[in-house]
Amino acid sequence: MKKFLFQGDSITDADRQRGNDANYGFGYPNLFAAEILKNRPYEFDFVNRGISGNRIVDVYARIKADIINLKPDYMSLLIGVNDVWHELNDGNGVATEKFEKVYDMLISEIIEALPDIKIILLEPFVLKGCGTERYYDAFREDVINHAGAVKRIADKYNLKFVPLQAKFDEAAKGGNDTYWLADGVHPTPAGHCLIKDEMMKAFNE
Fold first, then answer.
1. Number of domains in the chain
2. Nearest Cα residue to 74 out of 143, 144, 160
3. pLDDT tens-digit profile of 26-42?
4. Which of the residues 9, 10, 76, 142 is marked catalytic?
5. Are 12 and 32 in contact (CB under 8 A)?
6. Is position 186 annotated as part of the catalytic site?
7. Quick count: other Cβ atoms within 10 Å of Cβ 71?
8. 39: how many CB neighbours lie within 10 A of its CB?
């Protein structure tokens, strides 16, 4: 049985139950796992190690315990919005240059330890909501810069990249951004389903 690891921040965490690997939270990992488990029974085991509040430096700090030691065959990673949000809120974010450097270190060390792993990198995203509107223009610009870093790393290591910002922008046209991202960052059920659908395309390729 192949192991699929979900890694990231609160969007991935989605209130997963600690100590129970059969509980993937209520977000896109649960939706993604459910679809795979139904359509490809007995092929995959899923583990969610997303942690709310994480930045790229936090994921890197737990690379051994929460990635390498788990020996996944597949891994998805969605990280970057907190690197911006934490800077805007309390000056404890991770600037784009350092974000890219640490992200690159993370991926290179994972591939070195697990040379056969297949990795899907998800693009960070943002819309206007109660958590972002106070400094939305700066927030969006910085998230887009961080997203560019993720794309460059995906290209460098020939990894699957899942573009999400344009998908959320398109979905929110003519409506309310918070229909998709409740506070401008955290997805609603509809938003999580959008992520799942885009991630599934990359996985099926």
1. 1
2. 160
3. 999 999 999 999 999 99
4. 10
5. no
6. yes
7. 11
8. 9
